[in-house]
Amino acid sequence: MPVWVQTRCGMERGSALALTVVLVVAVGFAAHHFWTGRAEPVRPPEVVRAAAEASPTETPGAEIVVDVSGKVRKPGIHRLPAGSRLVDALSAAGGVRPGTSTEGLNRARFLVDGEQVVVGGPAPPEPATAPGPGAAPGAPSAPVSLNTATVEQLDTLPGVGPVLAQHIVDHRTRNGGFRSVDELREVDGIGERRYADLRPLVRP
Hints:
The chain folds into 3 domains: about 5-35, no CATH class; about 65-120, Ubiquitin-like (UB roll), CATH 3.10.20; about 145-204, DNA polymerase, domain 1 (Orthogonal Bundle). Helices cover about 30% and strands about 10% of the residues. The protein has 6 helices and 5 strands. The chain has helices at about 5-10, 15-35, 85-90, 150-155, 160-175, 190-200; strands at about 65-70, 75-80, 115-120, 145, 200-204. The strands form 2 sheets. A 3-stranded mixed sheet has the order 2-1-3, with helices on one face. A two-stranded parallel sheet has the order 4-5. Strand 1 and strand 2 form a beta hairpin. The longest helix is centred in the first third of the chain and has 25 residues, at about 15-35. The protein is elongated.
């Protein structure tokens, strides 16, 4: 602060120095307040465009080659438009054959060039009722009575024809019936092997 100001105001040197510091601080604060309080241009918000999930585009006119084999009507090499699905390959092959199981095939999936499609075999048939232990295929489900069965009924037993069936009936008539299945061994034409096949299928 100039000396003449100090002299005129009757201020001591220390007081004048303090006043100078206060004035400098006040001016600095005012300048800072003015600078920070001025209006700033507002930038418009940027428009963010959401990128849509685009499906892979195929070149117009492009095609793929697939090999369809197995239980189809027209197995072989087939040319399909790029982007085709498995159901399109099955259609190009004439469809699956009747009775063919397509389980495990995702018919909606996309095909790739050079792929091989193998269609599985026919669906497994429904399980039939299994005969008893030792029973031959085609045997009656219930044991046949040796004492009451007719020639026709005995003829249904595996390995027993009309002649052997008549021998069984004749033996039954001569001996008053069968008391046990073991007596089949005494019938003419029944050996040990045939007896072993018939034993689980008959009863006295």
